[in-house]
Amino acid sequence: MEKEYSKLFKKLPPALPPKGFLALVLARIVKEEQRVARQRLWFSAPMAFVSGFAVVFTFQYLAQDITQSGIAGYFSMLFSDGGTVLSYWREFSLSLAEQVPILSLTLFLGATLALLGSLSSVIKNMQTAPRYA
Amino acid sequence: MDPDDKKLVTDFLEGDSEALGGLLERYLNLVYRFAFRITRDSHDAEDVTQATFIKVWHNLHKFDVEKNFRTWLLSIAHNSAIDLLRKRKSFVFSDFDTLEGGNSITDALPDPTPLPPEIFSRAEDKKFLDSALSELSPAFREILILHHEEGLTFSEISSIVSKPLNTVKSQYRRALLTLRRNLEQPR
To answer: Hey, what CATH topology would domain B106-184 get?
Structure first.
């Protein structure tokens, strides 16, 4: 019975897409790609601008924290008296870790990552978006 | 998954935009034919096909390459067709359909038997069969087309239409009974 019906369905009139339909579908996909790229550009361009400012401010904050924490002294010790540092490397690392300005460093790295991400998105979407405009 | 499909999908995901064209070339006719059989209108079939491939482009990165691409593609085409039919409000069920997916009339009927030779030879007329099919609901037509024209298993159909396997089998039985009844009616 199954085969009988399958044989019957093979007799159905063919349903073929019109000529040039493949190109039309591809063009629709390209248009959609451009629309999405434009949308992403609207988001990533202001994001790059804002994160650029954030990088400047967080860098200033980080520089100020580094100066106040006296972490620079540890680095000068590392170069001037390497032998002592090596002998007491455990104590040295602990003191150094305590002095690291974690908050400002995290903010600076976060802002830098956001800037790099949004710049990469701007560049990538700029290549696609104008073609669709 | 077909090795060619797997390669095309992987190539696309790795940034080869030409690979999407390859997938389109392979499956355009299948999606169009499927859409046309459900909507029964060439413009609607074009709209459904375009919507399907746009959704494919959007969601291909979520697709598991170990799964069957054809089944995944047809499930997207199914959803696109249903969306369009709902918009057109032509996705109607008969008054006898129940919320559980049953049908008070056809459920009481016996199992479909082979077509008698005279009906079979009448049904071999393209237009006759097409017209008998057109009287079926899109959901019934879809199951018959997927099983008999595209050669899909009930399990594949069940994942395309997102219905349990037993529901698909029962709908298939009811669809065959309705088709047979339509074929028996003189036109």
So the answer is: Arc Repressor Mutant, subunit A (1.10.10)
For the segment A74-93, what is each residue's pLDDT rounded down to a tens digit? 778 778 887 887 888 888 88
Give the count of alpha carbons within 13 A of B132, CB side only.
Answer: 28
Q: Do A9 and B21 touch (CB under 8 A)?
A: no
Q: Using the 8-state DSSP alphabet, how is residue B106 labeled?
A: G
- B101/chain A closest Cα distance in angstroms: 23
SS3 B136: coil
Amino acid at B62: K
**What's the Cα-to-Cα distance from B154 to each of A18, B71, B84, B150, rounded to whole Å?**
30, 12, 24, 12
Identity of the amino acid at A81:
D
Tokens of B90: 């032509």
Average the pLDDT over A95-118 and give the result: 91
Structural contact between residues A21 and B28, judged by C-beta atoms closer than 8 angstroms:
yes
C-alpha to C-alpha distance for B162 and A18, rounded to whole angstroms: 30
Q: Report the complex ipTM.
A: 0.76
Alpha helices in A70-101 (DSSP H): 71-80, 82-87, 89-99
CB-CB under 8 Å, A32 with B129: no
CA B81 – CA B39 distance, rounded (Å): 7
Q: Provide the residue ranges of all domains of chain B, joining segments of one domain with +.
A: 3-87, 106-184
CA distances from residue A88 to A60, A91, A99, A117, B33 in whole angstroms, order as listed: 32, 6, 17, 40, 77
Please report, rounded to a whole number, the percentage of residues in chain A having pLDDT higher than 90: 44
Q: Is A20 part of a structural domain of the chain?
A: no
Q: Which of B134, B149, B150, B172 to mutate to test the interface with A (most CBs of A within 10 A)?
A: B149
Which CATH architecture group holds B3-87? Orthogonal Bundle (1.10)
User: Is the Cβ–Cβ distance between B6 and B65 less than 8 Å?
Assistant: yes
**Total domains present in chain A:** 1
* Position B99 confidence tier, pLDDT thresholds 50, 70, 90: very low
